[in-house]
Records
---
Amino acid sequence: MDQACGDQNQPMTNQLPSIDQLLYSIPDAVVITDAHGRVQYLNPAASALTGWSAEAAVGQPAAAVVTSLRAPQPCGNDPAPLAAVCAGTQPSEHEDILLTDRNGRQRRIKESIHPILSPDGGITGTGIVFRDITAVHRLREERRIAAMAFEIGAPLLVATAADLRVLRVNAACLELSQRREQELVGVSLDVLYGDAEKAPFLKFFRSPEPPDTIIGRTTRRNRAGILLHLSETARKIRDESGAVSHFVVGLYDLTEAIATAEALRESQLNYNHLIESMQEGVAIIQDNHIIGCNGHFAHMLGRPRDAIIGKTAADVSGPSQPDGRASAEKSVEVTTAALRDRHAWVDWQVTRPDGSVCQFEASITPSTLEGAAILLVTTRDITERKRAEAEYQDLMAELAAREKMIRLANRAYGIACWELNPATLRMSWSEGAEDLFGAPPGVFAGGYDGLRDTIHPDDWPLVEHCVTDAVTRGQGFDLDVRMFDKEGRVRWTHTQAEVERDADGQLLTVRGAVADITEQKAAQETIEQLAYFDPLTQLPNRRLLFDRVRQAVAAAKRSGGCGALLFIDLDHFKRINDSLGHRAGDQLLMEVARRLRALVREEDTVARLGGDEFVVVLHEVANTREVRRSAHRVLERLSGEYSVADHRYHLSVSMGVALFPSDGEDPVELLHRADAAMYQAKKDGRSTISFFQAALQSAADERFRIELGLRTALASDEFELYYQPKVMDGNRVVGAETLLRWHHPERGFMAPGDFISVAEETGLIVDIGTWILDAACRQLARWNRDRAPAEHLMLAVNVSPIQFRNPEFVARVKKAITDYQIVPSLLTLEITEGILIEKVEETVTRLAELKALGVRLSIDDFGTGFSSLNYLKRLPLDEIKIDRSFVTSLVEDANNTAIVKTMVAIATTFNLNLVAEGVETLAEAEFLRALGCHCHQGYLYARPLTEQEFTRRYCSATC
């Protein structure tokens, strides 16, 4: 091209008639224009590149023929404007620009434009010279990709065949050697491979004959002096004539594997543990048979360990190896070499029972085990490495097929590519695009307009908008649209497009990639379902409920109407889970959800908060009477018989109602108020409806404040134990019952009745109960430290049902006994009658475990619950306590007298101690003793006392 263009620093003179034959024959394309920018001449090379014949081109604007140009506007006959357009007399050059011929084909060209001067220096036209550099551009890209692969791969170095000197090393090679690039580049292979160990490599480098690949084991020291064991693979790179031009050497660090083998050989006594913990496969061979291996080795072979032990290497490998050698023959050869040289390396291939192939490299070292000679084999799976090496070799040898490989990759990941000509809207797709998306055959062949038949009609306007923006504004886009496949099914696709511009910023083309994201969309919908809906009942969860409540409140405020929030709790739902199991409980919850959906209007919302709590949001209700009617209808339809796990179960529900916007507008506030009303419904006897009142919220707030206080009370040491004496025969203190008090920092002294129910509802009673147990045992040990056994005091501790059911309760009792070294029989655990009827078998087992610790067991408030002689017969009890309700008016009330007489008879029959609570008068005490009850508690003897006061009164002489 340089010859055709002449000296580019000198303007061309008007020599057209004299050089016509030269221009006709040169390979560069030449176009000559007049002063107005119109074509006067083009040679055959220009005609071939532009698609214009000489006859058709003459007279046309140059920019129409050579589409890469920005042709100057016609300048008339005035040379001054033309000189201004041409920017003086100097030629201009443009490299690597895009030329589109008359048939729409595109090429990369190098172009130069020269002004043509008349003898007097005037401008008479321009000469445009250009050549096709498409192949050069492609080769440049191929080299860039190859260089990128070189840099990110395993340790590599490249040397020239001409002088056997290192030409280039990658970062991984520098990191392995811990040397700088200057220390390796330029070094002769004679130096790097000069010792005897590496002689085969040097011979390989000096021979131009095949083979073209050699693999061997070497040792080298890095810059830090550390000895590296390497596997090196050298390859010959040949030019187009077949001559060797370069060498590429790959290095693989085997140091860790060899070090592991050495460590194993030095630790024979612990080899079983060692080989199992190694990440490499390890086998032990004796007399050519495998006598042991680790799990990783068995996994590599795809066989259970039992199927390997006792077999030879050939037995578990397949008949032959990749080099064509028989496995048995090669095994003998490698074994012989290991025994002779004290070490051997081999690449080995195993065909697993399922047909898959595993390739590994093995380090074989002679050793001894319990005095017997063995071979220790350490293996590393190199299947992936071998595959990567093959892929790398293919990349080096097949760079010309890169485009095909990219298409294959796109197909593997479900990606299709397209290109759109912005001028013609001509669209081309990558091969196999229709198959990827299951599109009807030929639909993509119709170009851009053909897409209308496969894009969902609701999404087509979005596609048109994005494509129009790309073509008119040069903007890329990113969008998700639906497509129909040939079966008529909808598939979601994601398209990402970008535009390409020339050096002057002009739009050249629009390119995009399309991926099938149908599965991702389905997964996203599933995630959204989990985020906003209850997985068991498919009802909206708390998050979606709050959003619906906000909408309902806003609508009610706009219309001036009202709505309601119904908070529904299933009565005694825990009994179903305890008796029939959680699966039955789930069936009941799903049936409740089904009934609720059938009861409400389409615009209403039914949600599940969790557990057995449901919420109904009534939108746009006419008045409160309508709310009440709807609430009663829900209560009646939910209450009644259910078929659960082949059982008939009668269910009742309790409901709290909050109105909006009158009772509040915030969803959380409304939910709390409906919850407070529901608690009131439960207090009113369950199976009823309670509407929110301000007093209910006050009670709920009070419970919340108590809960917050309880959570810090233990850490702040705000609890204290009081002790009420147990008196025998009116004059001898035999022990006491512990009673909890809370010194609230703001509210002062609080009795258990003010906070125990909240502690049980929140589960805090478990930690509080543990504190009581520890404090009681500590006090019991202190009081009895110096007392004679006959004078030991006993302490009774009340146990909450929730605390009793806790799996750790027995262990905590045992720990308290052990920690404070108390006599177990001095500790009495008082349980309520309600515990006895729930989970009877579990209760019997739990009481037996406690009894085995040596503690005493007592039933508190006996006679007020569900006492049964059958329970008393089965349970390992020591004591029953007569409730104060039977002691009050005992002397005057014949019924109470009869009940107490019965209790005395029961205690006598079952050999149980009997304690009466709430004894306040001397007459009651004497009457109880006359009936046979001699141990009492009550204000007659003492109110609950602090530890200091109890000690002063009853044990100051001995404590």
---
Amino acid sequence: MGKDNITIIVSHTHWDREWYMSFQRMRFRLVAMMDQLLDLLENDKRFHSFMLDGQASPLDDYLEIREQQGRLETLVRSGKLIVGPFYVQCSPWLQTGEGYVKNLLEGHLKAEAFGNDAMKVAYIPDQFVHFAQMPQVFKGFGIKSIVFSRGMGNQQEEDNLGFEFNWKGPDGSIILGLHISEGYGQNTRLQSDPDEALNQVLFSKGAVNRYNKATRYGLMFSGNDHSLLQPVLPDVIELWNSIDEIVEDEGIVKHGSLEEFVNIILKAGEDLATTTGEIRGHRYQNSFQGVFSSFMPLKVMNFSAHDQLERYAEPLSLLARVLAGTNYEGYLSTGWSWLLKNQAHDSSWTASWEPVMDEMVTRFDWAIQIADEVKRWAFLDITSRIDLGDALEKQVAITCFNPSGFDRKESITVLLPSKAPLEEGFTLLDASGSEVQATITPRELGNEEIFEIRKFVESQGARPKYYYTVHTEPVLVPSVGYTTLLMVPGTRLKDSKNPEKERIPGKDLFLKAGDTTVENDVIRIEFNQNGTFNMKDKRTDHVFEELNYFEDISDVGDGYQFIPIIGDSPITTKHLKANIEKAIVDPYAATYLITMDLEVPAGANKQHNWRLDGHETLTIKSRVTLQAGNNPRVDVNVQFTNTARDHKLSVTFPTGLRAREVEVDGHFGCTPRGIKLPEGEKWKVQPEPRGPQHKFVNLTDYSGEKGLLIANKGLPEYEANLQDDETVNLGLTLMRAFGRWGVHVHENSPVTMENAQLQGKHEYEYALIPHQGDIFKRAYAGALAFRYPLHVEYKGAYNKYQGYFPNIDQPDPFLPPSRSFFKISPLPLVLSIVKKAGRSGDLILRVFNASNTEEVLGTIETSLDLKKVELVDLNEHEIEGTGMVLESGAHSISMKVAPAKIVSLKLTLA
């Protein structure tokens, strides 16, 4: 303390788009606040500035109601109203890496549209887990500092951190960290009388005085959740600075901005302590981890929308623009808008009030619908330009798109119409004209498939008479590209070397399927009577035993927290007898259906201290699929109907492996996490064995020679538990059903949430990929292939897009039957996105080195003619001196990529 101290007070409001009220109801309060704010900022010149919670979306939400564009532009341009850097305050681990970048880019573009740059401080006051790559991501937008309140664990003591510290990312990027452990909710509801308000501010100052500061500068806030303005604040500041006794003890106070405060700290040049790695703890404030498992069907929709936009709609719309001149930008921006509006943190946590969850379903569905239609229309723009040569009248072209940055050789499954019965014979040809082995199964169409086949009134052509599921042998599909197969009815499939000898599907692939065992070249599975299975990796001889058992336990928490009843023991399927049957077996894959009935208590009592005596039966059906040949991936599809309440259902995989840490896929790479929990003394909430992930969690044993990777589709919570024999069990949370809201506010909250009980049908997908220690040799690519399946379309005998598609007018074909547009090599160099630039018509191609330890000499190959390549930051501005003018027709870029580095390229085509 002392007269030389300077404290800056930042005026703000922490604005949740929706939380305990739905968006439309909450917006009435936003508009009232913004009306008052505009008047205050225009009329009181002493009121320095106002921070709009580090986001820009409130501008859009306000302008839909009030026509105040000009007033807002004036205030943003002058710096009085501070917006960004985000479009919405999100939950980082519930956005993909590209989704997070999109959020920041849209925040910057919105600020620019209003005449100023976005705030260059990552103000994230109410997020729970801060990913390790944040320093690099923020530096990619010119952001100098992160200001946060939740998430700090034991780093404060272990690394000797203070209020100000340096945070170092895995690539070496360093930004300033400011830990506001006392939160952001200070100096709100100030009395209108300056003398009384001064006492309130002095009281708040006492709390922030507890910060262990490295400089003489202090930071306070004026505002809180959905708070209105404090017009008296300039009077309070003048009064404070006029009283010598206060100045002598506390120093002076200034009204300022967060960015000004950060610049002061940076200019002070103090030697600050440094921490590394992610920030996810509960020592100083609650960092609620239950948000990663609540409303799991919405979590699946969330990641599906991200995947469809990022990995299919974006690259295909870009290629359609380059090859066909079509423009889907309006659709993409609208799809992203609906998705981003679901990323507001209390929304994405799925910890809001019931109507919010219902409305999120619609917004996710709209984003997915738009992404899916862009994918299909843009792909048709491309495939309609493929030169198929002399087409036979009845042939059907099957075109497959590979969204990955590497070639994939996979079996293809497609529902195919035909004008002729394929049972009488067919030939399937690949892009080179070689025969492809395949099996066919006649199909009856369901309602959705009927609409899929014939979507439009007055669609052209007669509806086909025959429908089949076609399943092929593995076919090579080039990276970020396509290949075409031709189905020709009416001829027999022959051996290419001996036309008189009929080819036998699957003869070149090994798959042996018994009643309770199945194996391919590298994996052998034995199903146990209780529904689990043992999996032998033939390459390492390691046997993973009793995989895939289910565990149920009580949950009397809410959207923020998983809270089991004290003393409750899990109920598992390990004691059950399951029904095991071969569901589908052909030469290319075998699927087994495992059915078991798990009895669980019907719910919890009203006092939430025991489970009821009545029981509900959960019939759990697991479809376990193994592909033929040299494929180490085992796919699992789980379906059940939930009729119980107040419980958590998870699936467990005993690995039999000993390890100190797991690796989880996250934002632009892998994050290591210790399995042994940290000391939780003095923590608000004790450390938990569960944590967030994106595409997978991986465990590699001490020897580094064997491991198990569990991939998933939209299941963001894993669990890693150390057993008595020091081996590790991995798990995935499938569902949390609870009926309460606001337990974190009051443990006996009377508010109920009926839709959070998740009654009804559930379906989830995950995959097991054993490996030989180095996930980049194969397992990582397998996880990407599982998460991003091939997209398959057909045309020819019946063009389901014919009719009302004015952009498709039977163009002259010029594309080859198979083509790769971009290829990235080698792993661990990973393609992140291919898209159109936000400020120009150029291409943005982003890659990252998924290894935290190895430098990669990487190559990017393209079949497009390059004119210029620029290295750009994440905000898509050129990094000075990195523009390369290439020879016309250049098709390759080579570069060294440091460990954990993100590289963004802007490509100008010739």
---
Amino acid sequence: MKKLLLMAVAALISVSAMAIDKVQKKTTTKEITSVEELAAATFKLTNTDGQVMYTPTNWDIKVIASADFTGNGQGGFYKLEPYNGHWLIPVYENADGTTRRKFWAGDQYVNSQPAGGNVIFGLAGTNSQHGQDGKDLAVWDITYSEGNGFAFHCVGRDIYLGYDAEAARPSNSIVYWTATGKVAQYDAAEVANAYNEVKGLNMQASVKTALEAAKSAYDAAPSFGKLTTYGDAVNAAIVSSEKYGVSVGGDLTSILVNPHFNTNDLSAWNMNGKANPGVDTNNHDCEFYQADFNMSMTINGMKKGTYEIGMQAFQRPGWPGTDMYYAYKAGTCESIAQLYTTAMETDVPNIMSEASTTLLWGEDNGNHPNDSKFNVDGTTYYIPNSMQGASKWFDADHYKTTAKAVVTENGGDLTFGFKGRNIGGGWILFDNFTLKYISEEVMVDASESKKLIANIPTAKMNKDVKAAMDAAVTALEADKTNGSLYNALKDAISKANVSIEEYVVAKTALDAQKALMDATNVYDAAGFAAYKAAWDANSTKYENCTLTNEDGVVNPTAATGWHASTAYNFLLTPWTIGGQAANNFDKSLYMNTWSTEGNGDGTKFTTPFFEYWTGDDNSLADNTISTTVTGLENGIYNVSVWVRARAKNKVDADDATGITLSANGVSIDVTEGTKVGQFNIKEYTVEGIVTDGTLTISLDVKDANISWLSFKNVKYTKVAELTIEAELTNIQMQETENPLTGDMTTYVVGSDAEGNEFTFIFTNGTYVGASLYTVNDEDCEASDGTATLTLTEDGKALEATVTFTDYADFEKKFHVTGLIPYTTANMAVNADAKWGTFVAPFNVAIPAGVTAYVVEDVEGASLAMTDITEMGVDYIPAYTPVLLNAEEGLAKTDVKGFAVPRENDNPIEFGPLTGTLKPIAKVEAGKYLLQNQGGKVGFYKVPEEGTLKLGANRCYLTKPANGGDVKAFFFDEATAIKALDALTSGKAEIFDMNGRKLSKMQKGVNIVNGVKVLVK
């Protein structure tokens, strides 16, 4: 169905101008002798020693003997790109200049180091400052000296491209290079002949003026560049003469680019962000299958009038067969493809519209691979079923369609296109575009004008764009058949739609900028004020509909160029790393604006974010990333940070360790977030206390196995006052000597204003680090008291109620501040092994089904074990290494508490069992680790240092004091630990699995004194 009817045109007479062949450039390989010639070439550079400049590794540019230069993939070819009156020099892999050399920073450019450096790099040069490590370091001035060659001067550094025996290096004086390469250029005689043929023909006035100017310039002083301009002008004149020389009825198909798809050349088509069609260059047709597409072509400099675009095409809106045939005949078959111009839109024919009772191609062998067949009321019908088959139908003159196009003034543009949408089984095939000139009048149908006016967009847009569209609507309503007014409104609507999209993008960017500002309050105040002022101004313009692209609204979450974070330096400025100010271009702490993994992994951990990075096979060096906020009210503050960490070598993210977040000295681990791919990601919150108006926030890296630390959205929030009724100060804590005696833990907390000392006895069985301060109140005269704690759900103490025994009716509540750090420990028992080890810095309740033992001493070849409950406690005391036994096993469990203060960091020993709170990467030789070897659980001796590691909250066994070469300790049925000793002294009886006695242990399973022992 055609959506626009044009006025009838009188009988037309077709007379076309004789076609003139355009002049073609010829490619030659030669020595290049001018900058103009160099700009048109793909070239290599050779120094006066006969060495070629190339890029043998990832980025360093060096020189190599010409005989050793192969060119293939060596990055030794170059082109020029103009830039602000200077040149950029991109690096290519091949002499044809079709394959760019790349590295992690992007396309490579010849790029100097900053002042003081001595190497020319092949790194990216099109970032925000056009220089990898400094402004304009990839920007060059190029001159040619007759008999010497080319000199390359770095604009950003005031040095020349030089060389020595090995590498291309900067030089303070001019160094000359010879350039050779492939140059495409016109033949002067062919250009002159074509000029003589075209000069007298009708053409667009501006094209005629440019032609004569180019010829005069070349005749006056012939040069490479002027010949290029002259040849281009002649070709433009040939095309324009063909367009302007056409008479009514003339065929202009020849000016279309590849109208019959004889080649895979789609360069003239704008695909409007959609997929390219499948092109069959053997059968010269194209197809889209189950795809959305919109392809258009624009031809410039056309003669005023009305044109006809023709094509052969069909649409199959779904799966072929009888049902589609009936739907088509009933007029209910939807349309999924249209040929369109700026003046009209036409549905292309349905595949059923020309279904034939004749098989056009191939044999009807039942499978009909070429023409598809179906039966209607006893009649067999055929339709195309392949690209090759479709070409046969087109050859038989099937499936033609046309649309009218108008050009409202001489020299105007003619745009036409073909579009379709995705549907299950949808197939659209097309070929053979044509173009005819059918009238010198511009004709539009009034009904189409009404539809255009009725469907103008109404969304938010720039007010000037809307005013122009409203004026165009008014003008067309007054004269609905005026083609110029019709096209003016279409153009205004197009601009309105562009503005609408721009306003959608701007709103997204403004919202992202607001979210960036709201996500943090740690920033440089002046930089933040400037950023917010720009946001305020642009937000006002958005609301008032005066915002334009020139206002530069940038979405901070959109990945941009390398280190292109100047707009967000208000985030970076307050931070230091290792005590030094952060610098966005150093290799320490900087803002990442280019990474995109957060856009696709569901985390929305997008740019910009802080980054501390090293190579994948390295760990970050110990460092402190820190910032200090001053002028705060005293109180308790929550500090939140969104952290992403990746273990080195991209190993399992569960193995990440070594990063802590601190707020005024209170620290938490930030490497245990949700695993997303290679990363651990989580928003962490730590509680810090401000007593002097100052809050120091830091991310501390120590003994980490992290290669990539990223963080963002650093924010502090006051959550409570320091005191409720009175403030506590100057705690002094003392622990009882033996945590296994059954006595409750007692602490002396200082004295009141009169010097009276107060002792708090914590009666909840587990020390939770209550107050860090002393009661300081004139009315307190008692010498003893009992403290009970009110806890939150996560175990943090909020207030302490203190009752003094000398004054039973005196009760005072104190806000508890400065809590001892809240920590986590992990305990587990393997279900097969039934045994495990554990130690924690706080008291821990014994889980159901688990028995905890302390190893007290060595008795002969055994270790003496005691159930901890037999020692008068029903929990595992802080800093007490224990053995755990669970017949059903114990799943990996995190237990939480507040660490009991400890005077030193010495190993945590209790008897021969030693515990560790941090992982041990290399356990010393001679220690014993709990292992399950060949189904036998016991403590096995570590053979040599570095072969085994031990996790946090786990224990190892030291060598018994009674000596002997003890290889392992095993559990007997009575749960005592028996030693397998004296294996090298000949006291043990050793047998293999077949009962044969052995003189010494061998690889595999050995039976030693009746015990199975596995030797690896």
